[in-house]
Amino acid sequence: MPNVLTTDSYEAGAIFQRSRSLNSDIKVIARAHSRDEYDHLKKLGLTQIVLAEEETARRMLALLGTP
Q1: Could you read off the pLDDT of 22-58 as tens digits, one per residue?
Q2: Predicted TM-score (pTM) above 0.70
Q3: pLDDT digit string (tens) for 3-15?
């Protein structure tokens, strides 16, 4: 299965739209750097979005032993 990587969430949204039009079963996981980027990707129909800030906070709390 081919992978496409980009650091730009808005570019990722455009890639997702084109890819989905070619293959409706494609699995996409996107990373957003901000809430605005997250909301943009969500509006486009992405369902698997990692918000970098939240994941970093979760990891930091885990390292501190906080659930």
Answers
A1: 888 888 888 888 999 999 999 998 888 989 888 888 9
A2: yes
A3: 777 778 888 888 8
> Which tokens hold the place of 11?
């570019």
* Residue 21, H or E segment: helix 9-22
Are 30 and 19 in contact by the 8 Å Cβ rule? The answer is: no
Nearest to residue 15, comparing CAs of 37, 3, 50? Answer: 3
From the number of C-beta atoms within 10 Å of its C-beta (0-12, 13-18, 19+), residue 45 rates as: exposed
Q: What distances in angstroms separate CA 2 from CA 14, 26, 30, 40, 51, one per listed residue?
A: 17, 10, 15, 24, 23
Neighbours of 36 (CB within 10 A): 11
